[in-house]
Amino acid sequence: MGKPKILLQLDPDRQASVFDAVVAIDAGVDQLLVRNAVEVAHVRDLVFGAIFTRGLEDLPRTAIFVGGSNVAQGESIFEEVKRTFFGPMRVSVMLDANGANTTAAAAVLAAARHIPLRNAIVTVLAGTGPVGQRVVRLLAREGAKTRVGSRSKDKAQHVCDTLTSVVPAAMLEAVAASTPEETAAAIDGAHVVIAAGAAGIELLSAEQRIATPTLRVAIDLNAVPPLGIGGMKATDKAQDRDGCVCYGAIGVGRTKMKIHKAALRRLFETNDQVMDAEEIFALGRLLESE
Hints:
Elements: E1 6-10, H1 18-26, E2 31-35, H2 40-51, E3 62-66, H3 71-84, E4 92-95, H4 100-112, E5 121-125, H5 130-141, E6 145-150, H6 153-166, E7 171-176, H7 180-187, E8 192-195, H8 206-210, E9 217-220, E10 237-241, E11 244-247, H9 249-267, E12 274-275, H10 277-289
Parallel strand pairs: 1-2, 1-3, 3-4, 4-12, 5-6, 5-8, 6-7, 8-9, 9-11
Antiparallel strand pairs: 10-11
Helix pairs in contact: 2-3, 4-5, 4-9, 4-10, 9-10
């Protein structure tokens, strides 16, 4: 029997996420070390503590999870963790601040169950938020024609420009979605709509959804009333509503949790894995095929 599996949870929040800690324990971690209020300046010493305490043969039994509610801070910590590694002195690391990566992966996989994403027209409402940007990023890599919706078209265009520099073949279009008229135009002709907005804000009414005959899949990632897409339930999972396959946040959440736990377990297979949105999505796809 090998040494215990240790997960170091780095969280920039003053109160570290209990949710992330519970998922880690349920995923089979033996020892969970939680550090809160983590700043980039703290990362090097925390990582050194993780990699210098075990021999090379035991490093796969240690891993790092970067969480917290602030995705931008999480990304900065994640990048600093990777920069701290050198040579064989490294452990596997996963980023899922605010659940953005696992939620985005689950949403895109849900859509892919019902429609080939390559060349499909997909509108992502609140596509400039942390989850929305990752949904757009994954859709771009799948070859979807993605409309990035935002109250500010300039912000949407900035996301499009940024992602195109990462995914040169991305087919992205910035669209305004601050009024009912703009939202209707943003989803006109779309095959899929994904609402990735903040809790308690309706982005698309039931009437607008029903009035878009091309829509085959609607996915809402907000579980707090009012929901992001009207006329749906948070528990919807492949529920037919007016000829459209609908997923609510809880319906998607089951897949998200499955991916989250599987990703944590994957961290302990080797000591050199880096799990960001794309790697987490690939794992989710593998789970779908099993």
